[in-house]
């Protein structure tokens, strides 16, 4: 059933334990110009929670939810697809701050009866499209926009145990309360598909990899369209948006990764910008002679990336 919400009045309305209305209209889709009326299928949050609890997630990040027809077209859609009906999301689920591969999510969605699935959403390894269509089945692969697949297990070579033995197939890298440079290096390799040395030394290679990760996040989250070259230049600096306390997700993860590499205690590496991460930002800013406001903006990221 489609329910309509008002924006911004309802943006913080909880649809389920881990999802609020505002997450279904994303910055990367609207660049701040959000529509005032937002349709959301009431089954979507239920299904998101099913995946979330099945895999023991600590985060589910939506990169695209409801799109107006115009927004859908500018995102490369037809202007009338499932996103315009409020029945679709593009989402990445994380466990222990590690993204769960799309092929595994797609198999689970298939098993719980979801009829609209796009594996490797946007051509990426860890993002999945799914929608609540009821009258037909669409199993697609967004790497090549092929459709008509019938079984994601055989199609993607995924074993049942990867979907049902929680953790068995996942990377052994887990977030710790005492994260190290090595933890960050393993995380950046797993999350951004890089292959840097996991030697525990914060050198030029790790620094460039973190800048690359930051550029990918700025592109995905804010539509920045940066080259992901690992070079923190004027364009990257200009694309930085303030990262503030209370933020969760990929953006504060990158911030924590930088701070950890610079030897600051963020109170864990969990993508959750809490009090200890804010303290770490303030301390870093003081040490570098920046305005110590605890908000990671252009100047702070520039110093972190030096
Ligand atoms: Zn989609």
Name the features.
12 helices; alpha+beta; Muramoyl-pentapeptide Carboxypeptidase, domain 2; 6-stranded mixed sheet; 306 residues; Muramoyl-pentapeptide Carboxypeptidase, domain 1; two-stranded antiparallel ribbon
Description:
This protein is an alpha+beta fold and 306 residues long. It folds into 2 domains: 2-164, Muramoyl-pentapeptide Carboxypeptidase, domain 2, CATH 3.30.1380.10; 181-304, PGBD-like superfamily/PGBD (Muramoyl-pentapeptide Carboxypeptidase, domain 1, Orthogonal Bundle), CATH 1.10.101.10. Helix content is 36%, strand content 12%. The chain has helices at 27-30, 43-54, 69-74, 102-111, 152-156, 160-164, 181-192, 204-222, 234-239, 250-261, 275-287, 298-304, and strands spanning 2-6, 37-41, 59-64, 88-95, 98-99, 116-119, 128-131, 138-141. Strands 3, 4, 5, 6, 7 and 8 form a 6-stranded mixed beta sheet that branches. Strands 1-2 form a two-stranded antiparallel ribbon. Helix 8 runs antiparallel to helix 10 (250-261). The longest helix has 19 residues, at 204-222. It is globular. Mean pLDDT is 91; it is low at 167-176. Bound molecules: zinc ion. Residues 64, 83, 88, 90, 118, 121, 129 line the site of zinc ion.
């Amino acid at each position: 059933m489609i329910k309509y919400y008002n924006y911004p009045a309802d943006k913080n309305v909880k649809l389920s334990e881990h999802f609020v209305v505002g997450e279904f209209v994303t910055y990367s889709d609207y660049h701040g110009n959000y529509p005032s009326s937002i349709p959301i299928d009431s089954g979507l949050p239920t299904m998101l929670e099913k995946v979330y609890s099945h895999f023991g997630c600590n985060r589910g990040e939506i990169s695209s939810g409801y799109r107006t027809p115009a927004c859908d077209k500018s995102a490369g859609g037809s202007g009338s697809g499932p996103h315009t009906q409020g029945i679709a999301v593009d989402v990445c689920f994380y466990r222990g701050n590690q993204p769960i591969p799309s092929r595994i999510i797609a198999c689970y969605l298939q098993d719980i009866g979801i009829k609209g699935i796009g594996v490797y959403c946007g051509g990426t390894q860890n993002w999945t499209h799914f929608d609540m269509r009821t009258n037909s089945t669409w199993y697609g692969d967004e790497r090549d926009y092929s459709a008509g697949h019938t079984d994601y297990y055989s199609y993607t070579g995924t074993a049942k145990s990867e979907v049902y033995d929680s953790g068995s197939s996942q990377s052994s890298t887990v977030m710790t309360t005492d994260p190290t440079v090595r933890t960050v290096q393993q995380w950046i390799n797993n999350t951004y598909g890089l292959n840097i040395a996991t030697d525990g030394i914060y050198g030029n290679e790790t620094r460039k990899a973190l800048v690359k990760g930051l550029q990918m996040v700025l592109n995905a989250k804010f539509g920045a369209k940066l080259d992901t070259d690992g070079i923190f230049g004027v364009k990257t600096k200009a694309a930085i948006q303030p990262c503030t306390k209370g933020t969760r997700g990929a953006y504060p993860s990158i911030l924590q990764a930088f701070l950890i590499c610079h030897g600051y205690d963020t109170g864990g590496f969990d993508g959750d910008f809490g009090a200890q991460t804010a303290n770490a930002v303030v301390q870093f800013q003081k040490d570098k002679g920046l305005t110590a406001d605890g908000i990671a903006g252009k100047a702070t990221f520039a110093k972190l990336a030096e």
